[in-house]
Amino acid sequence: METTRSWWRFALHYLEMVLAMLVGMFVLGGAIRAVLAVAGVEYSMARFPELVILEMGLTMALGMAAWMRFRGHGWPTTLEMSAAMLVPAAVMVPLVWLEVLDGGAAMMLEHVVMFPLMLAVMLRRRDEYAAAHGRSWRAARASGTHRP
User: Which of 4, 83, 105, 148 is the most exposed place for a label (fewest CB within 10 A)?
Assistant: First the structure.
């Protein structure tokens, strides 16, 4: 029973992070685009594919990292997950520069690679991601009984 419950928590945590990424993408990405539009900068995938790819990875990572910190995760775990999201973007940029991929294909591949990488990071720390996050989680961290 507890094993089933912990896997449900694990799956829910993954879903929460995906939602936090979407919020980051829409809120932070939207703010960036609004500021650039007011400044008169034409910011699009057609004009700046490398920047759009990096911005997408960064805004999603920031949204997810904020949610992870709110939920009580330590910096090592948060940075690992952020890397799982940013590395695919960093790999795609040179492929666009070298014209191996166009911007749209690189953006799609970035996302296709990002989600299994996130899952791999979560599986590496399965106990942490499957644990209940709340007062007991934070108390364990504060008492030193939780290993980040």
Answer: 4
Q: How far apart are alpha carbons 56 and 52 in whole angstroms?
A: 6
Q: Annotate 97-117 with three-state secondary structure.
A: HCCCCCHHHHHHHHHHHHHHH
Tokens at 8, concatenated: 């449900």
* CA atoms within 13 A of residue 112's CA, in its CB half-sphere: 7
Question: Considering only CA atoms, which of 47, 58, 3, 49 is closest in space to residue 25?
Answer: 58
Distance CA 13, CA 34 (A): 31
Are the beta carbons of 21 and 64 closer than 8 angstroms?
yes
pTM strictly above 0.90? no
Token pair recorded at residue 84: 């799982």
Nearest Cα neighbor of 119 from 131, 109, 129, 134 is: 129
- Residue 36: CB atoms within 10 Å: 14
Identify the sign of the CA torsion 27, 29, 31, 34.
negative
